[in-house]
Amino acid sequence: MPKHIGIAACSAEGAALCYRTICTEGAVLLGAHGHPEVTMHTPSLAGYVRCLEAGDLDGVGELMLASVCKLKLAGAEFVICPDNTIHQAFSYVEPRSPLPWLHIADVVAAEAADRGFGRLALMGTRWLVDSEVYPEHLTARGLAFERPAPDERDEINRIIMDELVCGVFKPAALAYLQGVTDRLERAGCDALILGCTELPLIIDDTASSLPTLDSTRLLARAALRHAVEKS
Predict the structure, then answer these.
(1) C-alpha angle 141/146/149, rounded to 5°?
(2) Which of 23, 53, 81, 227 has the greatest count of CB atoms below 10 A from its CB?
């Protein structure tokens, strides 16, 4: 039997995309209509936002731990979190967790290395882009990266938090993200990390001047592979 996947969710749109990907792509590994058992827990996003705005990563970690404890009670055997930003608290969570986790940035960095990319443009919330969540995993694989400029980070953060997490996708937002991507391509980047789980809902390979690394779907596919691995 495949392992039971637990999803420690944060924002609804990205978590829903991750969940759908697991359920729809499970058939590739398990036959028609097949997918592993999946349980998702989602606390109020407002709680996470309060902690992030206060710089309280321990508080973020406690919310994540509360989710994983509930997921374990529901029978999950390992956990994924389809939210890049709150992985800032991963070092707080992992040693206290009753279940093992897959790390979203490690999954994305592995894909970037496998595809032969060398310099990655990093796009996500201001909290994520300012953090070392991706740099640690990219540099461990010998990969370089570029962050958007400070003013670009602020506008991308506004687009994500005021629009994308609310299911609002505006042409003006896409145009702005495309402009940032074009600039980062000129700066020498050869791929774009969609380091917010909502970003794939507005920009993808067809709308980007750079190949995209979709953190949401990559994490979902890694969870599927892990679920069917022999113990």
Answers:
(1) 155
(2) 81
pLDDT tens by residue, 1-45:
999 999 999 999 999 999 999 999 999 999 999 999 999 999 999
CB 154 within 8 A of CB 180: no
CATH number of 5-103+218-228: 3.40.50.1860
Q: Residues in the chain, how many?
A: 231
DSSP 66-93: HHHHHHHHTT-SEEE---SGGGGGHHHH
Burial class (CB in 10 A: 0-12, 13-18, 19+), 147: middle
- Compute, in degrees rounded to 10, the torsion defined by CA atoms 51, 13, 113, 95: 40
Examine the pLDDT at 231 and tell me if it is beyond 70. Answer: no
pLDDT of amino acid 143: 98
Q: Do domains 5-103+218-228 and 105-214 have the same CATH topology?
A: yes
CA 157 to chain centre: 15
Would you state the structure tokens that stand for residue 148, as one six-digit string?
């958007």
Q: What is the dihedral of CA 67, 70, 75, 78, to 10 degrees?
A: 20
The dihedral through the CA atoms of 89, 129, 84, 110 has a sign that is negative
* 63-101 residue pLDDT tens: 999 999 999 999 999 999 999 999 999 999 999 999 999
Residue 186 near residue 167, CB atoms below 8 Å: no
The domain defined by 105-214 carries CATH number 1.50.10.20: no
